[in-house]
Amino acid sequence: MMQHQLSIDARFRPEVLERILRVVRHRGFRVCALNMAPQADTERLNIQMTVASQRPVDLLSVQLSKLMDVAGVEIQHMTTQQIRA
């Protein structure tokens, strides 16, 4: 299984994390790690997420960037790792 690290820039809204997680699940990815922090003095939220799947991460990135409150999605790096279910 491939692991992918994403950096997501979004508006700081109560429902934005729920929308992101729903898209991740619907696209067949599993969340392995999640770190979320508001950016100082802005209405922005920075989300660092590690996801795992056999599917191409580009498809997930495109779908996440279409969400209403998501300003940008960047694929940080990709690594191949064995993940035990």
Summarize the topology.
Elements: E1 2-11, H1 16-26, E2 30-38, E3 44-53, H2 57-65, E4 70-80
Largest sheet: 4 strands, antiparallel
The amount of helix comes to 10-25%
Question: How many domain modules?
Answer: 1
Question: Counting H and I runs of at least 4 residues, what is the number of helices?
Answer: 2
Rg (C-alpha, Å): 13 Å
Name the strands of the widest sheet in spatial order: 2-3-1-4
Report how far apart the termini are: 10 Å
What's the CATH topology label?
Answer: Alpha-Beta Plaits
Low-confidence stretches: none
- Beta strand count: 4
The second-level CATH architecture is 2-Layer Sandwich
The fourth-level CATH homologous superfamily is: ACT domain
Pfam families: ACT_5
Protein name: Acetolactate synthase small subunit
3D structure, described in words:
- The chain is α+β, with helices and mostly antiparallel strands and 85 residues long.
- It has a single domain (2-80), classed as Alpha-Beta Plaits, CATH 3.30.70.
- The chain is 24% helix and 47% strand.
- It is built from two helices and four strands.
- The protein has a four-stranded antiparallel β-sheet with strand order 2-3-1-4, covered by helices on one side.
- A hairpin with a 5-residue loop joins strand 2 (30-38) and strand 3 (44-53).
- It is globular.
- 18% of the residues are buried.
Q: Which key phrases capture this entry?
A:
24% helix; four-stranded antiparallel beta sheet; 47% strand; 4 strands; 2 helices; alpha+beta; 85 residues; Alpha-Beta Plaits
